[in-house]
Specification:
This protein is an alpha+beta fold and 160 residues long. The protein has helices at 16-27, 68-81, 123-132, 144-147, and strands at residues 3-11, 33-38, 42-44, 55-64, 96-102, 107-108, 113-114, 137-138, 142-143, 156-158. The chain has one domain: Alpha-Beta Plaits (2-Layer Sandwich), CATH 3.30.70. The radius of gyration is 14 Å and the shape is globular.
Length: 160
């Protein structure tokens, strides 16, 4: 039986629109995984390290048989395949994939926290997530569409 998971995608290097679009398509190629839907693309200002280009962000919903640790490994392998380098925290990147949500699973390991611990504060996650799953309930935080109201001034712009 497959699980419902949400993946945040972001890029601000080497044609970010193409990187995010291509990565979204690659999600459907993961073993036992189907792309259910994806959000529009959003241009967002950097968070944490300002001296870098704006990001292009999106969120994808997938159905997958991969358990969270295996899915995380697959996402990290996909990032590496796109040329992701982890030089320092919040550095510019070709591709960033974050596992946001996996069914109603709540877990905390050294490598993975579910649901993603900061997604409820981040417009670059909530805007695209609200587009495809506005009624999604983040445990202990609330509904995505309501949480989005606290992120309206974070420099997020939907691309046409």
């Amino acid at each position: 039986m497959s699980a419902r998971a949400f993946i945040a995608l972001g890029s601000n290097l080497q044609d970010p629109v193409a990187q995010v679009t291509r990565a979204c398509a690659k999600l459907a190629e993961l073993p036992g995984t189907r792309l259910v839907r994806q959000s529009s693309l959003y241009r967002t200002t950097p968070v944490g390290y300002d001296d870098q280009p704006d990001f292009i962000n999106a969120v994808a919903e997938i159905a997958t048989v991969l358990e969270p640790p295996m899915l995380l490994q697959a996402l990290q392998a996909l990032e590496s395949g796109f040329g992701r380098e982890r030089s320092f925290a919040n550095a510019p990147r070709v591709l960033d994939l974050d596992l946001l949500f996996y069914d109603d699973r709540v877990m905390r390991t050294p490598d993975l926290i579910l649901p993603h611990p900061r997604m409820h504060e981040r417009g670059f996650v909530l805007f695209p997530l609200a587009e495809i799953a506005p009624d999604l309930e983040i445990p202990g935080r609330g509904r995505v569409d309501r949480l989005l109201q606290h992120c309206l001034n974070q420099g997020v712009e939907k691309l046409s």
